[in-house]
């Protein structure tokens, strides 16, 4: 099992290297010169060339790539062209918004999906099942930014329970911070919860047809106890896969949602970086997100071996 | 073995009828089981045996409509609320099922699964429940197996013992065993049946033994009920039932379960499939270890042995799906191996135990049967050939347009044989090809195989754990143990006078009906 995990870690490392090359090369190909953009329309060619040299945009591709990678390994993500501060500093300011948002959304989607999936599977073919299948279909179909705007209209504009956007900062206290993230987290979580609930339902239905469920019932377990004690853990194995895959969608979704709610998170940072040709910010933050996704994939693999003892031997 | 005594019955089933979605599946089933008695319930699949067991447990599907009464010590279970039924299940009635490989939850340890029965019904601490689980696992002969082992780490026989341990954890008054040994090897079957017999004797438990195997009930049951199409057609004490055999269905079951031995070895031709000192290793495991044999044209060669003996590995090597690590296999003079030309493969085809698993459900029978043409190229008269193959196995030309789900298990096995015949092979490898079939269907498929062999001059390698079938269809037999052939010879001679101790053990392990009970009923007998 240790060897298998070692192999897995190695393949993820290779994926990380491949991703870094792709990100680097693609951003070289993006039109628009950051130096020209920063100096404005009237800048002289000499000034632009000087700035390019200062920003480290000159020199062979390979050298610049290696400089970027070795810098990142040492915690140096480069310096933002527009803000003129280290990217690491920008990231650390923003991550305190984005990370709690992602975790809240992930927890919310799981907390919603598990009971919903359980009820749908237990009431297979019944009214509740039909309702849940219809509702989750809607949840998947509706884009989350549109749903976010509806949430703002209802809870911020009409009911005035929360503010429509912005983030007070954690200095203002835990509750104001959580309250500001609540609507965005719900907007992010709902489509994910819909997918997760449907996957859980079908995994549970497959599991409930298994022979060991009949054994459990013959022991004297009630229908409900059978589902919770014997079916759920077996059904969690496919659900874990989806949960891992969803994490990357959550990060991508956050870019849009953070803009809808004016949250100073990593998503907005990337968005601003793109519009201002602050390529080093885009490059480093994207790499960071890739790293996060790969790390989550690895954790999901670890979780498999805990969920399914049959995988531990290999 | 007191029977028929009008002692107060433990379980009384009275006029039990079950219909699911308007189809009557059980009709007026009635029988009693006395405390400590072993009741055998015999019949083919679909006769309603398992449904009767589920009805007793109150575990019928929601859509079913049940009438009649199921009384346990006088109390009618059919009127009990679900909560009371949950308390009854596992405490008063335990149940084990046919498929030990899937009957246990793969993500829980065996100790936890046995202890769960205890903790469900009794106020017991975790440690107490584990102690009881340990005791019960010891009782079923698993004292060397730790509580923290997972089901996938155990063999089929060991898993069935775990299932028994969790069913008897609370010493129920009645144990229902639904085909408990059907999925097991003959020697493992004997051990499990011995265990059940001991439990009945030592714990004073009654046993409802559901099986299709008349030999099993003959050795186990005090009384037997024979079921057909949801009705009990005959019921008596075991010996009386076998001696009289009043109902024609019972006699038909018996006849089909004892296929006549092959009369005389058919004339054999030139060698078609040869193996010379074949070996296949997986790491340090010698799965196949120095196997040699020659199969001649028109000959049937049996291969018997228990699971894990190397039969399946040898089959894959013979088919050229895996390379031999040593030795060689040749088919009509062509070396067999993974790299052999596809056209050469057409001379040898295989039929497996479960044809349904190897049929694409969205293909019509015509396409399924024509599939092996990819080895030879599709001939212009493919359709006519498909129809000829279907008719050769006793199906109709019109069946070509249907989908596999429209057929019964026996018909599907005929389709699989038709598919194997389509390339006009010389050799058919039949890997447990009739093991999943009911005795009467099995007899029909065996007839089809004999007939095809006579007409087409086919050679068969017949791999099976079922000795009566091997005896009925093969000229020569090889007995395999731990990768080696321990005995080989003319089938009748091997069966009458086994030389290897292992062969004798296999033959003795097969459950039989005492000959004295059958005087005048049947022509063929073991001794």
From TrEMBL, chain A:
InterPro entries: BPD_transp_1_N (IPR045621), MetI-like (IPR000515), MetI-like_sf (IPR035906). Gene3D superfamilies: MetI-like. The keyword Transmembrane helix applies. It is found in: Cell membrane. GO terms for cellular component: plasma membrane. One of its GO terms (molecular function) is dipeptide transmembrane transporter activity. SUPFAM superfamilies: MetI-like. PANTHER family: DIPEPTIDE TRANSPORT SYSTEM PERMEASE PROTEIN DPPB-RELATED. This is Glutathione transport system permease protein GsiC. It comes from Thalassobacter stenotrophicus. The gene is gsiC_2.
Automatic annotation (TrEMBL), chain B:
InterPro entries: AAA+_ATPase, ABC_transp_ATP-bind, ABC_transporter-like_ATP-bd, ABC_transporter-like_CS, Oligopep_ABC_C, P-loop_NTPase. Gene3D superfamilies: P-loop containing nucleotide triphosphate hydrolases (3.40.50.300). GO terms for molecular function: ATP binding; ATP hydrolysis activity. One of its GO terms (biological process) is peptide transport. PROSITE patterns: ABC_TRANSPORTER_1, ABC_TRANSPORTER_2. Keywords: ATP-binding, Hydrolase, Nucleotide-binding, Transport. Its EC number is 3.6.3.-. The keyword ATP-binding applies. Residues 11-254, 273-507 form the ABC transporter domain. It is an enzyme of class 3 (hydrolase). GO terms for cellular component: plasma membrane. It comes from the Bacteria. The keyword Hydrolase applies. It is a peripheral membrane protein. It is found in: Cell inner membrane. Belongs to the ABC transporter superfamily. NCBIfam families: PRK10419.1 (NF007739), PRK11308.1 (NF008453). This is Glutathione import ATP-binding protein GsiA. It comes from Thalassobacter stenotrophicus. The gene is gsiA_4.
